[in-house]
Design a protein that fits this description.
The chain is of the alpha/beta class. The protein is built from 6 helices and 8 strands; from the N terminus they run βαβαβααβαβαβββ. Strands 2-3-4-5-7 form a 5-stranded mixed beta barrel.
Length: 169
């Protein structure tokens, strides 16, 4: 099987070409957030204050992880605090979520409406850390490793687990 390298932010054309089971390497800019920060970001969106952050999410990727000296590794995307933010973040422009765990049918259906995908990453912190070119805290630094980070990555390995209304079985 061919491993494709795709670069974030993504175009609709790239997203439309992804199929469940595809193995891809993600390069470019990805955002990192988990339980503590993503609900805060969604609250800012609901209050109409997101634009003040100056962060463009269009075609973007959110990796469900914390960023620490130990590196980055996926957390469970199906936690209520994370899966519950996916509709608003997708509406705001996010087109790929990276993490681990099985998502609800209604989340998979929502991705289909927005041409968004979900990809799983095996918990291999050392490998992922070697793919991070740079990292920067861009919101909520008071949350430490659970703040909202922006990473520049090269060839982050993942498997498309949900796309176009379908999922890995």
């Amino acid at each position: 099987m061919e491993i494709r390298t795709i670069t974030a932010p993504f175009t609709d054309e790239v997203l439309s070409s992804l199929q469940v089971g595809d193995i891809v390497n993600v390069s470019g800019t990805i955002f990192c957030g988990r339980d503590a920060v993503l609900p805060r970001l969604v609250k800012l969106m609901e209050e109409g204050k997101w634009e003040e952050q100056g962060i463009d999410l269009k075609g973007g990727v959110i990796f469900h992880t914390a960023v620490s000296r130990a590196g980055v590794g996926p957390t469970s995307s199906n936690k209520a605090e994370l899966e519950g933010t996916m509709p608003q973040l997708t509406e705001a422009g996010i087109r790929m979520f990276l993490g681990k765990g099985e998502l609800k049918d209604e989340t998979i259906a929502m991705f289909d409406r927005y041409n968004a995908v979900y990809a799983v990453i095996a918990p291999v912190t050392a490998l992922l850390n070697s793919k991070v070119l740079s990292q920067k805290c861009i919101a909520h630094p008071e949350l430490g490793m659970e703040a909202f980070y922006e990473l520049q990555v090269e060839k982050f390995p993942c498997i498309i687990a949900a796309a176009h209304g379908k999922r890995l079985s």
